[in-house]
Amino acid sequence: MVAMETKVKEIVNCHPGDLPDFVLTSTQPLVLKGFCASWPIVVAGKKSNENGANYLRQLYNGEPVFSAYAEPETQGRIFYNEDMTGFNYQTVKANLNTVLDKLIQHLEDPKPPTIYVASTEVNNWLPQYNKANSAGLEHLNPLTSIWIGNRSRIAAHFDFPNNLACCVMGKRKFTLFPPEQIANLYIGPMELSPGGRDISVVDFADPDLEKFPKFQHAMDAAHVAELDAGDALFLPSMWWHHVEALTAFNVLITHWWRDSPAFMGKPENALKLAILSLRSLPLAQRKAWQAIFDYYIFEHQDGDLSHIPDAVKGMLSLPLDPNNAKKIRAELLNKLKI
Fold it and tell me: Superfamily assignment of 9-257 in CATH?
């Protein structure tokens, strides 16, 4: 496979509370060098892994966290089992201090088990965290989560919200793909997936190009972001990202927010409804509906519906308002009853 060298654009002198609008509205990923270097959690972790772990202990409220454990043979890859009926790791509820103890215990282990705490909301488990380590995004009301572990490989997936991902301990590598690369990433089943997100089933460490030949096209379009402690990555909505934690102790803080009203719901709900209603239609009918979706949804432009009086546009009014959203939801719920 041809080596991929495209680097994500780096921005310097960008700090919490002083993020330019072009960063938060970018349609391309951006690395913010040193963005959170002055945060107490970063300063603590740079002194030593043990010191970083102790900083987390001071913030922890004692509520059990969900943690994943995988045998050393997985080499950090969080993935399915052999027949894709389950996963190659176990999930247990544990005290965070116990998880941190195990991570410290295995710091020098050349073949450690994979230990991983994923997407744990800081306000619920580390309630004082944001007071000292604020990204200055309060106006966006982000969901702020922490990810803790040793070396790991998280399969390529996408998230609907925008994300400001801050590497606060250790090192991380993100391999990023524009949304249109989905056809080249070989996505697994929708009903069962690690973390509840659709994932690429290609092993990025050893891609089988005979089995997954189109993956080369994805890599040709990919971008790489390498983060040291104190760096951040702005990850736009819907970009696919494969994430590697590269050191024996790693902590990532993510800040997710959507730039559309919550009353619009989740777009994946529309996808599931389309699978129910459209995916099994004959090709000619699918093509007809594709044209209709393009007209009303994907390719609509200002003025397309100027022939309809505003007073009767109803659900076609732009932007969609809460009242029309409520009507659409009620009508769908009624029609979906069997």
Answer: Cupin (2.60.120.650)
